[in-house]
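Postdoc handover notes: sequence design on the structure in folder B. Input tokens:
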């Protein structure tokens, strides 16, 4: 569907992408993995036609359309939600306008027999047919249906986009892309600014409705739920794995271990051969053997171990000054803007040392309550901070507020005071801005690099209450793990506003849910909360089903549950077909498992460990087994 051939991207003397090649096929959902600054966003922009590579080509069959969702969106604040989403049909609206102009021209002209007049008629006829096929007269209904599916209310349609938060703006942009129904979907950090429910909706959409997807995301749970292939960009090269993200990590580790063993065996063989040559080089009786060994040495195909980017974020929060036992206490806190109630009756107590999460849909008041704690906005009710509370605050838009014309070093030097100024280079090095990287201008940094730079400010003075509003947006998975470890080891208190389930898992012991003007406390971790929410949803579903059943009985509507003879026959046919496909899949799984077992036995020998072709076959066979297992699970679910 889309082919990348020897793609190269160079900046000055630095090669970002070095002759990478791959093909994106129909029904593939590919995770583009790699550290911040590896070139993932650049690759997506090139595939979307928004940037030109230094070399190589992107090949796209005629008629294949691409939908691209960037990290940073630029929506016009002059349009309403409906008008912005309707831009998906702007090409049809242009065609409709052209058709109207042609009709006017035909009515005014009198040269009916000329060739020019016939050309106008033919163009008008073609446009008429194209518009009828595209469903131009139904596009407004499609726009409304899609927006409501994404959680917008009918009353939101005519509100300006500027009134909506980042998460809702992301949904407007998603609505435009979904309405265009592109053949290839390119998504750059689609989960940034989305709440947990929206992420789960997007997971379902991508796995059931999309043709081909390539996405960049640092949400591991999202990647595992959506993708079935992973392409890793590391040090300019691309490594392709036909599995989801977690399986890719496992296969990458296995691949490097096998390569390392093969490399070590070969190095021993080379060393032994070189020692033999050196020892007997000048003995006439051994000259034939020496020459034979020299030729043997020349023919050896040297094994290389995949390069690994070992640059790593080193983050540790300074010791927290001791605060009072209860850093945050609220009683019946209320916040509204005019007639719009954000929340009321918020009563909660956060104890010293606790790590808690604020979760809920966008626009339900998470960031608003944070601003109340920061004393940035007025509120009703009682909100008190404990004795000696010193707050360290990371806002989700801080990375965008940096001065783009300043260098990395100057950005920190500008806010640093006292002895810290003598340690700026060390701090920057710990955040992977060592050497020449500290002299880069902010405007050339990737989203993740900007987030890291903004986070350095937290380290400039000791705090005992960390308030982190979406801290993982734009951070790669490795950096998120380092941040997670640093927060868990932090001896102060932490409030984390986040939608990242994997990041919150094992980090927080309490979840505060925002929704419907209320803040509800849930004891336990994030997955305890999500399990409880599913249970509540099921209970609501059962309740609504019971009510519906009573209504149906009351209205005495005739039952439609019985299938006709033809319908039952068709159902039985589908069942038999699925059962046969399941049996075939099970036989295939058994054969693949046997093949893998045989290859593992061979690879465990010194000779097998150095056979790179066998290693590749082993990895490919494991990937085929994973795909077959996934197919078998789908068939079982369908049955």
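Designed sequence:
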């Amino acid at each position: 569907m889309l082919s990348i051939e020897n793609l190269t991207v160079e900046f000055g003397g630095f090669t970002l992408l070095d002759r990478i090649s791959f093909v994106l096929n129909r029904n593939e959902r590919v995770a583009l993995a790699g550290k911040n600054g590896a070139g993932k966003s650049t690759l997506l922009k090139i595939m979307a036609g928004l940037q030109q590579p230094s070399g190589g080509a992107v090949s796209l069959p005629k008629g294949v359309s691409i939908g691209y969702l960037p990290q940073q969106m630029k929506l016009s604040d002059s349009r309403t939600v409906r008008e912005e989403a309707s831009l998906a049909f702007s090409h049809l609206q242009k065609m409709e306008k052209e058709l109207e102009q042609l009709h006017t021209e035909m009515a005014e002209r009198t040269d009916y027999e000329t060739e020019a007049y016939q050309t106008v008629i033919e163009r008008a006829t073609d446009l008429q047919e194209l518009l009828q096929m595209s469903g131009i007269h139904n596009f407004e209904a499609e726009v409304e249906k899609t927006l409501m599916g994404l959680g917008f209310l009918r009353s939101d349609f005519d509100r300006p986009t500027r009134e909506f938060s980042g998460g809702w703006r992301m949904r407007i942009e998603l609505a435009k892309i979904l309405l265009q129904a592109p053949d290839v979907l390119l998504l750059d950090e689609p989960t940034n600014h989305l709440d947990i429910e929206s992420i789960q909706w997007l997971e379902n959409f991508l796995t059931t409705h999309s043709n081909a997807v390539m996405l960049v995301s640092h949400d591991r749970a999202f990647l595992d739920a959506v993708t079935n292939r992973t392409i890793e960009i590391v040090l300019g090269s691309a490594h392709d794995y036909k599995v989801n993200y977690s399986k890719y990590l496992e296969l990458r580790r296995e691949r490097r271990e096998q390569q390392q063993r093969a490399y070590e065996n070969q190095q021993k063989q080379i060393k032994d051969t070189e020692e033999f040559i050196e020892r007997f080089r000048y003995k006439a009786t051994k000259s034939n053997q020496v020459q034979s060994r020299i030729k043997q040495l020349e023919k050896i195909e040297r094994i290389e171990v995949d390069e690994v980017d070992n640059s790593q974020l080193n983050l540790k929060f300074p010791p927290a000054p001791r605060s009072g036992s209860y850093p945050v206490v609220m009683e019946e806190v209320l916040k509204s803007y005019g007639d719009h109630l954000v929340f009321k009756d918020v009563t909660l107590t956060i104890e010293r040392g606790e790590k808690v999460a604020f979760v809920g849909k966008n626009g339900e008041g998470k960031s608003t309550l944070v601003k109340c704690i920061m004393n940035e906005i007025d509120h009703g009710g009682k909100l008190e901070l404990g004795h000696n509370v010193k707050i360290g605050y990371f806002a989700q838009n801080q990375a965008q507020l940096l001065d783009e014309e300043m260098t990395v070093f100057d950005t920190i030097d500008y806010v640093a005071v006292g002895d810290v100024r003598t340690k700026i280079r060390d701090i920057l090095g710990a955040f992977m801005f060592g050497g020449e990287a500290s002299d880069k201008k902010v405007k050339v940094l990737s989203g993740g690099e900007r987030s890291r730079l903004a986070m350095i400010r937290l380290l400039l003075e000791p705090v005992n209450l960390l308030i982190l509003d979406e801290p993982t947006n734009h951070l790669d998975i490795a950096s998120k793990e380092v941040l997670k470890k640093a927060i868990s080891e932090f001896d102060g208190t932490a409030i984390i506003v986040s939608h990242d389930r994997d990041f919150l898992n094992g980090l927080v012991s309490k979840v505060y849910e925002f929704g419907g003007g209320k803040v509800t406390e849930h004891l336990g971790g994030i997955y305890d909360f999500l399990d409880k929410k599913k249970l509540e949803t099921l209970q609501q579903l059962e309740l609504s089903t019971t009510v519906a059943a009573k209504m149906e009985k009351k209205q005495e509507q005739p039952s439609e549950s019985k299938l006709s003879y033809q319908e039952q026959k068709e159902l039985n046919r589908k069942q038999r077909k699925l059962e046969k496909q399941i049996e075939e899949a099970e036989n295939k799984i058994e054969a693949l498992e046997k093949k893998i077992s045989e290859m593992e036995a061979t690879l465990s020998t010194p000779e097998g460990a150095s056979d790179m072709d066998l290693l590749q076959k082993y990895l490919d066979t494991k990937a085929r087994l994973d795909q077959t297992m996934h197919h078998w699970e789908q068939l079982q679910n369908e049955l």
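Context for whoever picks this up: Residues 102 and 124 are 6 Å apart (CA to CA). Don't rerun without checking with the PI first.
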